């Protein structure tokens, strides 16, 4: 039986009561306890800094050359918090409700309410660290809208919010490094969890500079290594982002929750050719002011500026008048795919739609002209002033778009198309963020807990920092209070020796295949299978085919892969090979999970289960649960179900019309 450890009592009192009754570790005992943190993005850096500040001895690991290079820097648009600075009706309950609804009623109420509760504290923490959030004229922090909500609750720092938040967490991390409470291991990759008497007691890491395997003990291990979107090859993730840490934890007994729940982001620069190794995200914040449209005429070859207003289909505004261009990501993505599939796509590939700022430029220009006392401005004056506002709000995003596409988005509409972005699935965790392996925790995107079947925009940063700054410092004490008598275990313990040998054997096996194919080519082939048959839309026949194709590809990988160089020293191809090998196993589980869930919900769209209007059709009677998969060895898994009981929110058919 899965024990989610949800505290008793009323929903809004659970977290407060939990904090008042959880076990504590006194400061002198904290100094005797070692905690390993894998990953130094927002979840990892904030957790490491917070735990070290409390007195724990922390070992932090990242495969990058600096903790500041974690992929959290790529988050652009903002971070949600229920501050209600706009006085527009926001509240903790409304943030909680929007998140539950946005996730299509497939997330755990208690975790989501806690997230909403601590959201305001995150903003206060980051302001105190000097994060340069945008501000209104009067000095209050500014907010903007994101998809799936009807209030303005997203705090932002131009189009580089993730980078600024990570710098704040990073300086907190580095302060503890300087004080000696954190030992930082950069260019190290975790390749195995070490378990002793059923508990996580350490890791085996590979030094990516020397190639040596190293052993590290910890009373607890935190997986903060992000999501697995790169299983699709083309995604908005950095090429180095991977699932290896989470996957090794899974194969050591940590259940994997909802692996098929993948988020497709609607606002990305379209694929331009086979040469691409990743895709570029254009922030969802652009949907605040940009209007999305396609020509009303199929296969229209005219340029955007040549198409008159009455021949444009603003299809999101037409289909979802209440939310318009700010519908949730899964809804906007499917709508774009539907228009393109029907022949209304734009650009040379016809796999794109327009994101147009012309109306926003003129609207802002009118306001600015009023500010400057220009009573009857010309269109040129309005446009000039409006462009200045747009540049101030989104300038770095517009510059990035122009550098990549060669088109000036101030002059012509952007072209966008959906792409793989975030993964809602991840290691199954209970209310305390502990996996099914005692002493092993998962934070941020590495766990499944807060977003259900679809994540609302600007909630990834919120969850990562909530888990690291405000949740794990309390919940880990409930476990470590019983570990204060456990002395550090020497790394010559047989469990460490066995784990290291297991890693060494795997690396040697990879190096000794000496086949003919590159890791990159294999990864690309896996990505095409996943995108075509387990991407924006899935069906039973395609998923069954994908499972067989992935199994065949995995067999081919272990028979015909070629890795140059040696195990010793720097070998990026070997690093990548290990990660792709894990993706080849995870991809199969994703398809198995998608095939098992005979419903459509959020980012999981089974073509057999949709309404007459083409919307996702849930089956609450049969699928109101979290799918928690247990690895059973040799490519087999056992399914466990965590039933979702909604005490406050009553699930209904989701509508944004």
From TrEMBL:
Residues 523-656 form the Fumarate reductase/succinate dehydrogenase flavoprotein-like C-terminal domain. It comes from the Bacteria. Its EC number is 1.3.5.1. It is a peripheral membrane protein. It holds the Pfam family Succ_DH_flav_C. GO terms for molecular function: electron transfer activity; flavin adenine dinucleotide binding; succinate dehydrogenase (quinone) activity. It catalyses: a quinone + succinate = fumarate + a quinol. It is found in: Cell membrane. This is succinate dehydrogenase. It comes from Ilyomonas limi.
